[in-house]
Amino acid sequence: MTIEEKEKELIADFSIYEDWMEKYEYIIELGKDLPILKPEHKTKENIIVGCQSQVWLFAEKKGDKVIFTAEADAIIAKGIIALLVDVLSNQTPEAILNTELNFIKEIGLQEHLSPTRSNGLVAMVKQMKLYALALKNS
């Protein structure tokens, strides 16, 4: 499934919910489904700088695809990183680098986050793109 197809699916999923409290609950549920990060990947080097809570992100290349795994110590942050992992994992580095991640705006995510969480979201996306860039030629 392409990034665009995953984004369309997420936009449709979020459109079911009437208000932002329900959408936050959905984001929290997504975080609960995030696979647990292996202890050896939960290192200081894998912490995303710029997040209010601690968020760990690990990336590896399998074939021509980037696989992301992540964990966070706060439920909303965990849900947000779960959204991003769902959309960007198992994609080529080029696809990750070239995506605009329109779903963030479409579902209204950034405008419904506190300024510190919004900064964290930007930091998460930036780190995922940096990993894609680093893995592009490996």
What would your notes on this structure say?
It comes from Putridiphycobacter roseus. This is SufE family protein. The structure is a single chain. The protein is mainly alpha-helical and 138 residues long. The protein has one domain: Alpha-Beta Complex (Sufe protein. Chain: A). The chain contains six helices and two strands. A hairpin with a 2-residue loop joins strand 1 (55-62) and strand 2. Helix 2 (20-32) crosses helix 3. The model has no long low-confidence stretch (mean pLDDT 94).
Mean pLDDT: 94
Please tell me how large the radius of gyration is. 14 Å
- Name the CATH architecture: Alpha-Beta Complex
- Characterize the largest beta sheet: strand count, sense, and whether it forms a barrel: 2 strands, antiparallel
CATH class placement: Alpha Beta
The helix content, as a percent range, equals 40-55%
- Looking at how many chains there are and whether they match, the oligomeric state comes to single chain
| Global morphology | globular
Structural class: mainly alpha
Q: Which fold does the CATH topology refer to?
A: Sufe protein. Chain: A
Percent of residues in beta strands: 5-15%
Distance between the termini: 23 Å
Instruction: Please provide the count of β strands.
Output: 2
User: SSE order in H/E notation?
Assistant: HHEEHHHH
Give the helix tally: 6
Tally the structural domains.
Answer: 1
Pick out the low-confidence regions.
none
Write out the strand line-up for the largest beta sheet, numbering strands in chain order.
1-2
